[in-house]
Amino acid sequence: MSFQALGLEPRILAALKDAGYTEPTPIQAAAIPKILARTDVIGIAQTGTGKTAAFVLPMLQLLGVKPLVGRRIRTLVLAPTRELVVQIEENVRAYARHMPIRMATVFGGVGERPQVQALRDGTEMIIATPGRLLDLMSQRHGDFSSLDFLVLDEADRMLDMGFLPSIRRIVKALPKKRQTLLFSATLSPEIEALTHEFLFQPSTVQVGRRSNPAETVTQVAYEVPRHLKLALLVALLEKPDYNTVLVFSRTKHGADRIARKLEACKIKTATLHSNKSQNHRLRSLAAFKAGEVRVLVATDIAARGIDVDGISHVVNFDFPKTNEDYVHRIGRTGRANMVGDALSFVCPDEHGDLRSLERFIGRGIPRKRLDGFDYTAAAPPEPPAPPRGPRQQQQRRPQRGGGGGGNVGAPRGGGGRREGGYGGRR
Ligand code: AMP
User: Fold this and answer.
1) What is the pTM of this model?
2) Domains 4-206 and 217-368 share a fold
3) Per-residue model confidence as pLDDT tens for the chain (426 residues)
């Protein structure tokens, strides 16, 4: 199957050639003809399957047929996170590089003015997170009265993040006659309900078994006491093939703590979580993509949809909260048929979660041990407990010794022993 056989036009074929794509992925082969035939489509596919091009390419083709008239908006793509919005935009720019198609992004955490201007001017495509878009639409910015396409990308995650009320209000303001495309990693009853609400006689395309982690990813679990997880991570990072490593932490404070430890061990590390400014997050992602930092430590929501080619390892430093999160996390590696490794650090109180995950994915995850690592070592000094409020300065207190009073951390290790890299200041 070739892109040409799917009926795509020469300007798009040229862009795909520039991008080095030789043939469509299964979701592209299934979805593109349906979208070109003006059918509403439900796409069940995880990121990493090529789903962005599956909806962008046919829309570009249909948009290219007639030019934009007036100050209207012809396409609205809604996605759960700012990172995903930026990523979709990058893809659209690449695929539309030989076409006179304009686009703009709308998301929170940055100034409104350019976004307001773009909405006022009209454009072929707005790629937005629901919250900020609704804000601007409530201020009557943007003429959506002749919208051709609505795309709901990662709809399951948008629901998880509580965006449904905003999405409902946005969709209410859109014309009923439009083509709607909805993509989701899973087809839960909630998503199914959403498709009845927003789509008209949709056709469903599905790739892979539902919730089946990418086949190209090797999954292993390291059983390790909680207090040795950081030391195990550092020891693994001594291996040179760990060159582009995405580490998942359940909490923002945990992510910062891991990053501080790695930096103390001279391992170039960036963080990605929602306590950071938008600029910080984009910089972190860019540095990771460019290979300037070897490790990116992220929380689940921030990492959703990260599209970085060639991630060699995904490390579940903390076990994910849900089995779906696990599937999304490990989908960050092994993308577009490259191979990757997903490692889960599992401490005794996470064993139950691991077993439940194994039942969910329908297979066992092999246990692995790192040769030469002392799994019985005493607890190194723990960093202080995360502050309850945004009182970040508490974190910078010396962890132990000296002043004594006021350290909320209750270090587990008692005294004395300090492992390499555990600096005195956190
Ligand atoms: P996505 O699932 O949209 O996040 O895409 C995952 C990755 O696959 C991205 O890096 C795309 O650039 C890449 N990709 C998408 N379609 C193709 C294709 N047909 N051939 C090769 N790579 C692709």
Assistant:
1) 0.60
2) yes
3) 899 999 999 999 999 999 999 999 999 999 999 999 999 999 998 777 889 999 999 999 999 988 777 899 999 999 999 989 999 999 999 999 999 999 999 999 899 999 999 999 999 999 999 999 999 999 999 999 999 999 999 998 898 888 999 999 999 999 999 999 999 988 877 888 899 999 999 999 988 643 345 566 788 999 999 999 999 999 999 988 898 899 999 999 999 999 999 999 999 999 988 777 778 888 888 888 888 999 999 988 766 656 677 788 999 999 998 887 888 788 777 554 455 789 999 999 999 999 998 888 778 899 999 999 999 988 766 555 555 544 444 333 333 333 333 232 233 333 333 222 322 222
Domain 4-206: CATH superfamily is P-loop containing nucleotide triphosphate hydrolases (3.40.50.300)
How far apart are the C-alpha atoms of 3 and 24, rounded to whole Å? Answer: 6
Using a 6 Å cutoff on CB, does residue 219 contact ligand 1? no
**Rounded to an integer, what distance in angstroms lies between the CA atom of residue 220 and that of residue 300?**
19
Instruction: Confirm or reject: Cβ of 48 under 6 Å from ligand 1.
Output: yes
Largest separation between any pair of C-alpha atoms in the chain: 73
Q: Indicate whether residue 47 lines ligand 1 (CB < 6 A).
A: yes
CATH of 217-368, one of 3.30.450.40, 3.40.50.300, 3.40.50.880, 3.90.950.10: 3.40.50.300
Question: Which amino acid residue places its CA nearest to atom 1 of ligand 1?
Answer: 50
- The number of beta carbons lying within 10 Å of the beta carbon of residue 163 is 21
Sign of CA dihedral 25, 43, 88, 310: negative
- Domain residue ranges of the chain, discontinuous segments joined by +: 4-206, 217-368
Ligand 1 proximity of 244 Cβ (cutoff 6 Å): no
For residue 21 and ligand 1, the question of a CB distance below 6 A is answered with: yes
Query: Which residue CA neighbors atom 17 of ligand 1 most closely?
Result: 50
Choosing from 2, 93, 244, 307 the residue with most ligand 1 atoms within 8 A of its CB, the one to mutate for a pocket test is 307
Instruction: For residue 276, give the 3-state DSSP assignment.
Output: coil
* 271 Cβ below 6 A of ligand 1: no
